Amino acid sequence: MTAPRARGRLTLALRILFGAAFLLYPLIVWYALSRGSPRSAAIVALCLVLPVAIVRLRGQDPRALGSLALVPFFVVIALTLSLVLDHAGFVLAVPAMVNAMLLFAFASTLRRGSVPMIERFARLQLANPTPDQVRWCRDWTWIWCRFFVLNGVTAAALAIWAPIEWWAIYNGGLAYVGIGALLAIEWTLRRRRFGPT
């Protein structure tokens, strides 16, 4: 096997690992916190996230520091603080922090002269969207921004005031149901309005 192919497979494996760790993060944290200290929860989460963060950040252009590629970097910082201080707050803050970073990434594309985030995704399938489709994409970028605010505030409130079980149920289940529902609603309404693309 050639070196580039091996590197490609390693990168793919690490992305899958990070995706799984991201999806299972609330359950991993709940299990680790219910059986040990915040430090142990941080160690388990770091073992899953740190390799991917290193791969993602290696060779990153300094001008791209505001990109979504840095989400693992900020997660590692929060987990490291939890490890050093043995405090659960940093581990529990990760879902709210991720929503805040997604909000910033989406909202920053709504500036005048910028291409809204949903339009960027749409242009992966449509080379030349119509003006109506461009307006649709801008409106849905706003809707996603509102979702990230609601989701992030809920995650933060549960991290501060709720039992760990509620935090895990919301962030490990209900938040994903909300994301899936919003994706399904947008897909259904878009197909009704514009037809298959």
Question: Summed up, what is this model?
Answer:
The chain is mainly alpha-helical.
Fold and architecture overview:
About 80% of the residues lie in helices and about 0% in strands. By secondary structure, the protein is mainly α. Helix 1 packs across helix 7, helix 3 (about 70-85) runs antiparallel to helix 4 (about 90-105) and helix 6 (about 130-160) packs antiparallel against helix 7 (about 165-195). The radius of gyration is 19 Å and the shape is globular. The N and C termini lie far apart (about 40 Å). The model has no long low-confidence stretch (mean pLDDT about 85).
Distinct helical segment count: 7
Total number of domains: 1
Strand fraction equals under 5%
Q: Which structural class should the secondary elements be placed in?
A: mainly alpha
Shape: globular
Largest sheet: none
Tell how many strands the DSSP assignment holds.
0
- What string gives the helices and strands in order? HHHHHHH
Question: What structural keywords apply?
Answer:
197 residues, globular, mainly alpha
Topology:
Elements: H1 3-35, H2 38-57, H3 71-85, H4 88-107, H5 117-122, H6 131-161, H7 164-194
Helix pairs in contact: 1-2, 1-7, 2-3, 3-4, 4-6, 6-7
